[in-house]
Specification:
The complex is a heterodimer of chains A (235) and B (384). Chain A has six helices and ten strands. Chain A is an alpha/beta fold. Chain A has a domain of 159 residues: Rossmann fold (3-Layer(aba) Sandwich). With 384 residues, chain B is α+β, with helices and mostly antiparallel strands. Helix content of chain B is 50%, strand content 18%. A six-stranded mixed beta barrel of chain B has the order 2-3-10-5-9-8. In chain B, strands 6-7 form a two-stranded antiparallel sheet. The relative contact order of chain B is 0.21. Classes of the chains: A alpha/beta (235), B alpha+beta (384). The interface between A and B is medium-sized, with 32 and 25 residues. The complex binds adenosine-5'-triphosphate and magnesium ion. Adenosine-5'-triphosphate (ATP) binds next to strand 1, strand 2 and helix 1 of chain A.
């Protein structure tokens, strides 16, 4: 079973009358149970690719199936529901809601899924415990360090038990040790039965956590996913 | 999601207060200004309300409002009394007469002459003395505003001592002695009101052929007032209005022939515009600042309908708070001004009026924000 199965994905952007080919026929498979890292030079299309995979951006051509569901074929409504249930997000800039506490932030995906607030908060408390923030439930994001905020974000990406977790540069705003801890968490907490992770990164210090690494350049996967993480990566 | 919307709104304390201030301002102006306006307009006919007792006012057909006196001949009184359905009909004199104060100054007074026998048409309430004291020689009753202000006597040290019972006045060279102070409702006319008997008023007034200002009529029980007014008009060729009809005539005259409605209309429109500008602008920039938060919610699966509901809820909350504060401040203002010259009336229709105004502002503010959020691309969440 493939968590992600992409064939011939293309995506063009119009920017100031100029056309940019961000994806030029990408093939990509991520098996269930794997953590795949996506690396490549700036502007090569990594963010575009994971946006299509996560269903927040429509490709121009090609197909992208997530757990067998072709997102482009879904109605807007079904696509939202699919995202709400199946996708977890982690961002470089955390993107926590600044006026909610850590616990409330972590509960947001459940609330979007229609879970009643007390239950959602209870689940958020448990998951924050697991990422080591059980003591900071009522802290506001502004009162937390970068690493702590990213741990809240990871808790938020996991709280609704999604099957695919999509991360864009989750460690690049963090120092080395904090980055390592965050990755251990992601790897440990996320890869329960039946999940998959895709992580965009420049940060070669975390390559060791990957099951496979896909290299991208200029809108294409240039090196098929290799099971051997390279320590001599140019990125 | 409503919970998240509320927390989001209150999370940005300064914007939250800014929006509420804008709405409070708008709702204050949109309630307080019309309240003063309504108060002012009821003043235009408060003399008619004060007279109270008669059902019908009869006057020259050319009269346009209550202070527009066009005198009749005394004989008209008897013709009106002859109309069937009339229980009684009494004369009323209303005219401006110059008074000379004890310090030698002159002050124009609005003199009301009441039927000598019945004293019908007198002030609604006496503060000092009794209405019947008007039967004593040379007696007059003065309204409390006149007594305290324009007819007061300035002492050598500059302090104003009010006119008192027992003081003397000279009205057009006729001696008058104050026997009472009356409580009246303020009118548009700033002159002191002086009550006396009809025959004495005629004596004081400058010599003219006609001196009868109005004829006050009481209908017999079970006579329809509208019909009686028509009867009086067809029998006498005069104009007859019910009390309410005469109030409306006066009110409409001021509405049509003065700048008052336009001036207040401009204030209200300005309040609306300024409030809408402040609240709308702040709400919009609040939404713009939170665009990323909305995008994150969208990426995580919150639909446009949900976000729409969140923004409308946020707009309603600030709307209700701003409206409540504005209306509350207006009430406090009205209460604080209750004993001053300022007119202020706060009928429930005004609550609806300003409520609709505030709602419109909130809808405009939410509307521009909603457009922005609806067209938001969730893919922006990965942009740093
Ligand atoms: N919304 C957009 N409009 C126009 N062009 C875009 C847009 N988003 C991305 N691009 C362009 O598409 C190409 C791929 O962008 P993308 O963000 O996917 O690259 P990336 O690999 O994530 O880069 P980075 O490592 O710097 O984050 C770039 O040339 C970029 O300028
Ligand atoms: Mg990127």
């Amino acid at each position: 079973m493939m968590a992600v199965h992409c064939r011939n994905l293309t995506k063009r952007y119009q920017a100031g009358g100029q056309e940019v080919m961000a994806l030029r026929g990408v093939h990509l498979d991520i098996p269930v149970g794997q953590l795949m890292m996506l690396v490549g030079p700036s502007g090569c299309g990594k963010t575009t690719l994971i946006s299509v995979i996560a269903g927040i951006l429509d490709q121009d051509e090609g197909t992208c199936e997530v757990y067998g569901v072709d997102l482009k074929s879904l109605s807007d409504r079904d696509k939202l529901a699919f995202r709400a249930k199946n996708i977890g997000f982690v961002f470089q800039s955390y993107n926590l809601l600044p006026s909610l506490t850590a616990q409330e932030n972590a509960a947001v995906p459940l609330i979007i899924n229609g879970v009643k607030r007390p239950l959602a908060l209870q689940a958020a408390r448990e998951i924050l415990d697991r990422v080591g923030l059980g003591q900071r439930l009522t802290s506001m994001p502004s009162q937390l360090s970068g690493g702590q905020q990213q741990r809240v974000a990871i808790a938020r990406s996991l709280v609704h038990d999604p099957r695919l977790i999509v991360c864009d540069e989750p460690t690049s705003a963090l120092d080395h040790d904090t980055g390592q801890r965050v990755m251990e968490l992601l790897k440990g907490v996320a890869l329960d039965a039946g999940k998959a992770l895709i992580i965009v990164t420049h940060d070669e210090r975390i390559f060791e956590f990957a099951d496979t690494i896909a290299h991208m350049d200029d809108g294409n996967i240039v090196k098929s996913p290799s099971l051997q993480p390279t320590s001599t990566s140019p990125y | 999601m409503s919970y998240i919307a509320i927390r989001m709104l209150m999370g940005d304390r300064s914007k939250y207060l800014g929006i509420i201030m804008g709405l409070t301002f708008a709702s204050l102006i949109m309630t307080q200004q019309p309240a003063i306006f309504v108060g002012l307009m009821t003043r235009s006919f408060s003399f008619i309300s004060d007279v109270g007792l008669p059902d019908i006012w009869v006057m020259d057909p050319k009269v346009q409002f209550v202070d527009d006196v066009k005198p009749l001949q005394d004989t008209e009184l008897y013709r009106v009394r002859g109309v069937s359905g009339v229980d009684w009909a009494m004369p009323l004199y209303k005219g401006l007469i110059k008074a000379r104060l004890t310090n030698g100054n002159f002050q124009t007074c609005n003199v009301i002459g009441l039927d000598d026998a019945t004293l019908i048409g007198g002030p609604p309430e006496m503060i000092e003395g009794r209405l019947e004291d008007l039967r004593r020689a040379d007696s007059v009753i003065v309204d409390q505003y006149g007594a305290n202000e324009k007819l007061g006597v300035k002492g050598p040290d500059g302090t104003l001592s009010p006119l008192k019972v027992g003081d003397l006045l000279e009205l057009n060279d006729h001696r008058a002695i104050v026997v009472g102070i009356a409580k009246t409702t303020r009118t548009f006319q700033s002159q002191p009101v002086v009550y006396t008997t009809y025959s004495r008023a005629k004596n004081m007034a400058p010599r003219e052929r006609k001196l009868l200002s109005f004829i006050l009529v009481k209908a017999k029980p079970s006579v329809a007032l509208e019909e009686l007014t028509r009867n009086i008009e067809s029998h006498t060729g005069l104009a007859a209005y019910t009390q309410k009809g005469f109030q409306e005539l006066t009110y409409n005259y001021y509405m049509k022939n003065t700048g008052i409605p336009i001036n207040f209309g401009i204030s209200v429109a300005l309040g609306f515009l300024v409030g809408a500008a402040i609240a709308g602008q702040t709400f919009y920039s609040f939404t713009l600042e939170n665009l990323r938060q909305f995008a994150v919610l969208k990426a995580m699966g919150a639909g446009n309908g949900t976000l729409l509901m969140m923004i409308l809820l946020q707009a309603s909350i600030v709307g209700i708070i701003g409206y409540g504060l504005g209306v509350g401040l207006t009430s406090v203002f009205g209460w604080a001004m209750r004993n001053t010259i300022l007119s202020f009336k706060f009928p429930w229709q005004l609550l609806v009026f300003s409520g609709v105004g505030v709602m419109l502002i909130c809808l405009i503010a939410a509307g521009i924000s909603i457009r922005k959020v609806m067209t938001l691309e969730p893919a922006m969440v990965f942009k740093t």
